[in-house]
């Protein structure tokens, strides 16, 4: 394989550094979708590139090569990836998949917990007011979701600020922001370099809800005041494991609300989209090159088998009892002959592509 297999890894690292900063500038709703797409594409590219690199080492195991009926020598000659790189990639891939599995189980448990909490909350309306002096307010995703607010939080806010708070939490439920968080947590588990995207995504979701609340209330100042007062009131309280009005970087959120709303712009997303397209194209090219590499190794093994068969047949004509030689060299396993026959057409197509 050529340099193309490393491109998805490099794109992931570049976007992990640049995307969180760039996501704070455009409209938060568009930024949230951009971060989610970035996380999904780069996570697939990261795992795919690691799998291709790991395969080059795994394929050189004699038992694997015998089962696939390809030449280990041909793989080592054609493939420039070192065995140490393949081993590191295999370990990283295994760790990423294991971490992804653990994160998926945690997310399922979190969703189950949220739905149980929704059912346990008093009343049957969207808003659930709990008799708690500790100020807190958050949204619980469910079917439907619930907005949980303590009496302590309601006492800290005025009428318009309460309306802004409820509009903020309602925006979390309406936009299904918990699904965005799930995407970022799973992709960060599979690809550790993407963890900054998860933190940036949390801030973007809060900004998205702030903008929706400002549009509902009709005053950005009221929402900024509600966010600030809610954060100060909840400073000494434990942070709930849900979408909360006090989440994200509160000073930056308040500062953004005290300025005009960001206009919708397409230009900031163009470089990221180009990098994601490059990631997909490079992964597809690396996969094609890996397929060609295996075809070459299979044809080399077929040629070696044919040479051994011809040598055995020639020796059988000159030595008495040549049937023994024929059994050893001429009668290859059926799966080997099938592999040579099946890869004949594939090899021809690969030569046409080359």
Could you characterize what this model shows?
The protein has 354 residues and is mainly α. The chain is 73% helix and 4% strand. It has 14 helices and 4 strands. It has helices at residues 7-22, 28-58, 62-68, 72-78, 83-120, 151-156, 159-174, 177-190, 195-217, 220-233, 250-257, 270-318, 323-330, 334-353, and strands at residues 127-130, 137-140, 146-150, 243-244. It has a 4-stranded mixed β-sheet with strand order 1-3-2-4. Helix 1 runs antiparallel to helix 2, helix 1 runs parallel beside helix 9 (195-217) and helix 9 (195-217) packs across helix 10 (220-233). The longest helix has 49 residues, at 270-318. The two termini are 14 Å apart.
Helix content: over 70%
Radius of gyration: 30 Å
pLDDT averaged residue by residue? 81
Main pleated sheet: 4 strands, mixed
Topology pattern, helix = H, strand = E? HHHHHEEEHHHHHEHHHH
Oligomer: single chain
What distance separates the N and C termini? 14 Å
Low-confidence stretches: 320-332, 349-354
Structural class: mainly alpha
With strands numbered from the N-terminus, the spatial order across the biggest sheet is 1-3-2-4
The number of strands is 4
Number of helices: 14
Question: What's the SSE blueprint?
Answer:
Blueprint: H1 7-22, H2 28-58, H3 62-68, H4 72-78, H5 83-120, E1 127-130, E2 137-140, E3 146-150, H6 151-156, H7 159-174, H8 177-190, H9 195-217, H10 220-233, E4 243-244, H11 250-257, H12 270-318, H13 323-330, H14 334-353
Parallel strand pairs: 1-3
Antiparallel strand pairs: 2-3, 2-4
Please name the defining characteristics of this protein.
elongated, mainly alpha, 4-stranded mixed β-sheet, disordered C terminus, 354 residues, 4% strand
């Amino acid at each position: 394989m050529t340099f193309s297999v490393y491109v998805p890894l490099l794109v992931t690292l570049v976007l992990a550094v640049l995307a969180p900063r760039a996501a704070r500038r455009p409209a938060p709703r568009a930024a949230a979708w951009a971060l989610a797409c970035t996380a999904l594409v780069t996570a697939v590219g990261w795992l795919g590139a690691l799998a291709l690199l790991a395969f080059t080492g795994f394929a050189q195991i004699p038992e694997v090569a015998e089962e696939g009926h390809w030449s280990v020598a041909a793989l080592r000659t054609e493939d420039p990836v070192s065995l140490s790189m393949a081993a590191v990639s295999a370990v990283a891939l295994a760790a990423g998949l294991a971490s992804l599995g653990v994160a998926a189980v945690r997310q399922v448990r979190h969703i189950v917990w949220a739905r149980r909490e929704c059912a346990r909350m008093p009343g049957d309306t969207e808003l659930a007011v709990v008799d708690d002096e500790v100020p807190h307010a958050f949204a619980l995703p469910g079917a439907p979701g619930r907005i949980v607010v303590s009496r302590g939080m309601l006492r800290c806010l005025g009428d318009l600020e309460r309306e802004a708070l409820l509009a903020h939490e309602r925006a979390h439920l309406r936009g299904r922001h918990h699904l965005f968080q799930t995407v970022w947590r799973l992709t960060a588990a599979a690809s550790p370099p993407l963890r900054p995207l998860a933190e940036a995504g949390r801030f973007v979701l809060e900004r998205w809800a702030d903008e929706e609340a400002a549009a509902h209330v009709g005053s950005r100042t009221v929402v900024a005041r509600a966010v600030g007062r809610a954060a100060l009131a909840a400073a000494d309280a434990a942070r709930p494991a849900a979408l909360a009005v006090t989440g994200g970087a509160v000073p930056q959120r308040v500062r953004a609300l005290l300025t005009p709303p960001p206009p919708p712009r397409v230009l900031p997303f163009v470089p990221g989209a180009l990098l994601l397209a490059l990631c997909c194209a490079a992964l597809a090219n690396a996969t094609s090159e890996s397929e060609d590499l295996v075809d070459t190794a299979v044809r080399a093994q077929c040629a070696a088998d044919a040479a051994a068969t011809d040598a055995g047949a020639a020796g059988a004509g000159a030595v008495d009892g040549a049937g023994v030689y024929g059994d050893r060299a001429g009668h290859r396993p059926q799966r080997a002959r099938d592999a040579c026959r099946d890869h004949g057409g594939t090899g021809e197509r690969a030569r046409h592509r080359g």
